[in-house]
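Subject line: Sequence and fold of a protein, written as structure tokens
Body of memo: The sequence and its backbone structure tokens, given next.
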Amino acid sequence: MLIAVLVGVAAAGPGLVARLGGEALAGRFTQVQRAAPGVVHSVRIDPEEPRAGEESDLGADLARYAEGFENAAPGALRGGLRHTSTRIELPTVRASVGDRAASMSLVYASDAPGRGAYVAGRAPRAHGQVVELAVSERTRAALGLRVGQRIALRGGALVNVRAVGLLVGVYRATGTDGRPLWTEQPLLERPLPALTGRTQDAGALVAPRGVEVLQSRSDAELTVEWNMRLDLTAGVAARFVGERGERELRRVMTRYPPAAREAYCVVESAGGKWCMLGAHASTDLEIRSALDAPLEEFGRQWRQASVVMSFALATLLGVGLAAVVVTALLVVRGRLDADRLRRARGASATGLALRRAADCVPAALLGYGAGCAVAAAVPGSSPAYGTGLLVAALCWLVLPVLTWTAVRDRAVLREGAPPGAGRRAVAEALVLLLAAGGVLALRARGTEEAAGPDPLLAAVPVLLGLATVAVLVRCYPWPVRVAARWSARGRGAVALVALSRAAKEAPARGLALLVLVVTLAGAVFGGLVSGTLVEGRRAAAAWQVGADASFLGAGRDPGTAQRLARARGVRETVAVRRMRVDPVSGTDGGRYGIAGLVGVDGTELGRSAPDSGAARALRAAGLTRGGLTRSGLTRGGKGGEIRVLASAGRPGDLLTFTLGNRKTRLRIVDTLPAGAAHDAALGPVLRATGTGERLLLADNRDLRAFAARDFEESALLLYGKRLDTAALRSLVPRAAPGATGGELRIRAEEQAEAADDRLIAAVTVAHTACTALAVLLALVALVLELLLSAAARGRTTAYLRTLGLGGRAVTGLHLLQLLPLVLAALVGGAALGVALPALLGPALDLREFTGGPAAPDRHIDVLFTAALGAGLGVLVAAAVGLESWLGRRRGLGAVLRLGRTDD
């Protein structure tokens, strides 16, 4: 049974881990494509060129090419890469209805709502030279429109246009139906509130024929986009997990663009318009993917996740092999007398071992077959039969080796005669050296993916467990002996006998201690990593947003920033900006180093976020108000100097840099505290900062001389406990990360995505499953180890019972005798589990998961650790209770044997 379980784990484990990775990769692609299409094909087209006897049907042409792009997908992605929408967005036009006017954005979208979404009228379609329009209910109410009304369309950004629009339909756009169109084109859902002195912005749907009419009137060049989505099943995505899988996916994605271009146009236009989209001359197909960066990021994170999951599998297999060893020892003990008799009759130790090996072959084969059958029955996994065969061979060899050792040297099984002190010291030193060497090798080599299971990564948990046991066996008998001496002063012999035997038998309990330490260490390590990742992702999401919400690129789009500041639920706003400078010393001309000069509204930040470290640092240095600072400088410094807090440099140092033709002087007032440098309010502008870049923090009022274009990064932080997410999203499309118009980030959304990260869920599932199986195997190993030493304890109990010891006292004796072992296992296992992240060092970089400003703080799951300790205590108590019950049913003659001196 043990062989079947271990073979099943070894054979199915890698496949299950790969499947978990596939689910995580598919989930990551799903998250990325919520905000933007995964693959976008685009061409630029000229106005139609009518041909005699032919009529342009742009809608049919767009659909035909969309189907061609799907069919051009490589075989590995066939069915997973699918077309989701085709879009043509026209430049804005000025729409006039009576005395009302609006700036209207016209969009053709193949994924527009169907007939059932229209509350009045119908969807736009071809209608001669009349441009048919459809608007949302909110747009109809805001502009006072009605179905059948004619709208004059005049030139705005789309110049030279004079056309008539006919409103033919009004649709319902809820924004909650999961349709990407509303988040990517929010004007189609609701109009923007008008700013002072400006017209209202609105959106409308048009038919492909309406696009052609307006393009012909303006002679404009338009861009057509076919949006594709990559949806992978867990089984398919599992092929692309790991370094080799990532390379394979990149090769597949590299072969796709040439096939898609050939499906569109066989002529290489080289920048010209030699291709045709129906009746429109067009450029060659351009393809851009939003999946490359997430794939690279996932690859880095998966290498770290594989360390945690490999440790969990190694812990499980190590505990299982220990259980096999205990089982083999029990078998050897039962057959020792017969083997000694055969040895006395002339049989060799090697012959007895070979005979035992032959006897074990059927069990090993049966266990291997059962384990492989279980692994093959697991859906969606590819069993590693070679790894299972190796585990079965190891399990098969244990009994012959122990038999050979027992026949040649009884010291393996004699509890009362441990090996000599010299041999024990050499063995312990060797274990410590192997553990240290394994950790150092793993830290130096990292976790580069090999062609199969990593032997070093699998051996390190067991080696560390052995090293911990070696230290514990040397250390914990000392306090036990002290407690035994102290108990000798009291009445009763139970405590004295129990503690004395616990100290004496400590080396013999090494195997049981190893099982418990490795199990607890693996459980604590997995719980620590899972808790750290969950909390770290939440903290990183807060760092990337900076506030309850933030608008990145506020300096490039002040109009949207102004609308966001006035949105419902926004209580306070804070502006933060960053420019990259390369200052030099104002005294000796030496380079200071590349630095980010960050400006923030210190007073507003302190009012909006009272716990802000940056606001406290600016206030403490006197940079947010007038008066003297500790350096004796007034506001603005001397001679127009800008006062800053610096992450490097001495207070009072002068730095200078040149921007354009203007030379700027910076005066370091004080050192920037680490808490201020990691303040979440600075995250939106520091997220792309290099790790070696220094930081200079100033108040925005000292940076008024700089124009908005001088800052590479700018953000508007939005604070409010009850932000209207839908209203904010209606102002900024969610599908525009890094776009010129800016990007809106909402902390609740970011943290929800972090909580939905399937990679962390995969780590948690693997750790939980392996811990549960390891606990069961540890239970088996512990019970078998208790059975192995039950005879000696039974004789001791029998002696004490002849002296008048009662049944309850016997149970207390057993519990007290095992208590030091349990406490040592708890201390050693918990300490090793907590220390594992530090021991692994660069081989396990949890910051890869979070992306925050620094490595995430460790979060030890105290409740989980306490539950493990309590469970271990209950386990030992149950085993002792069972043994005591069995002991009461035995007579004294069953355990007392004259002439036995091996206890």
User: Anything to note?
Assistant: DSSP finds 27 helices and 23 strands in the chain.
